[in-house]
Write a structure and sequence with these properties.
Layout lengths: L8 H13 L6 E4 L11 E7 L2 E12 L1 E2 L14 E3 L1 E2 L9 E8 L15 E8 H9 L11 E8 L2 E6 L14 H13 L6
Parallel strand pairs: 3-7
Antiparallel strand pairs: 1-2, 2-3, 4-5, 5-9, 6-9, 7-8, 9-10
Length: 195
């Protein structure tokens, strides 16, 4: 048995961010499983109200963020940043999924930086939305793709760039965590989701 509890950086960062968005003063608490064998769940949010507790379970998927070389042709459209996630089986235990990608706001920075300098892009999907994304994750030839990813220049527009059979570059900006925090609030307020 390990004597030290460790937490992956994306989980630590998102737990802190969720605590700010869903404050304890409003009855929310962010919980972290202490077991590494807790399959399908990385975080849980509990909402206490009038003696009742409601829980939302969350799985976090993290991606490195890639900065491609500038295109050779000026007609080629490229985004400044790209994330690449492994396609995965959607576990029944998670109510929500956070797709996390950390990136440097200035790739030409030469001075040393601290952790606060980096920014991150996080998308929130509920269970059904993630199942749909994974079931539609296909190559241009229509075969299941092993990966999927998003491209963006900034957080104003985030599009699906891999895992889309039709190459339509579907806009997922509305899935940004800061744009969907009310989805979590509503889920935790609904009596139908008591656990």
């Amino acid at each position: 048995m390990d004597s030290v509890f460790t937490l992956q950086w994306p989980e630590f960062l998102l737990a802190n961010e969720l605590q700010k968005m869903l404050p304890k003063a409003q009855g929310y608490s962010v919980l972290i499983p202490t077991s590494r064998q807790e399959k399908g769940i990385d975080l849980a949010i509990i909402k206490k109200a009038r003696g009742n507790s409601r829980v939302a379970t969350i799985q976090i998927k993290a991606s490195r963020t890639y900065m491609p070389d500038p295109p050779k042709r000026h007609t080629t459209e490229r985004y400044r940043y790209y994330t690449w996630f492994n396609r995965f089986d959607v576990p029944d235990d998670a109510d929500f999924f956070l797709l996390f990608g950390m990136y440097p706001p200035d790739g030409k920075q030469t001075k040393s930086v601290n952790a606060q300098w980096y920014q991150h892009l996080t998308l929130l999907f509920d269970h059904e939305e993630m199942k749909e994304l994974m079931s539609n994750c296909r190559t241009r030839s229509g075969r299941p793709d092993k990966m999927f990813g998003f491209g963006f220049d900034n957080e104003k527009k985030v599009v699906l760039t891999r895992g889309d059979e039709h190459g339509s570059r579907k806009d997922y900006s509305h899935h940004l965590l800061q744009n969907r925090i009310d989805v979590l609030r509503n889920y935790l307020s609904s009596r139908s989701h008591q656990k």
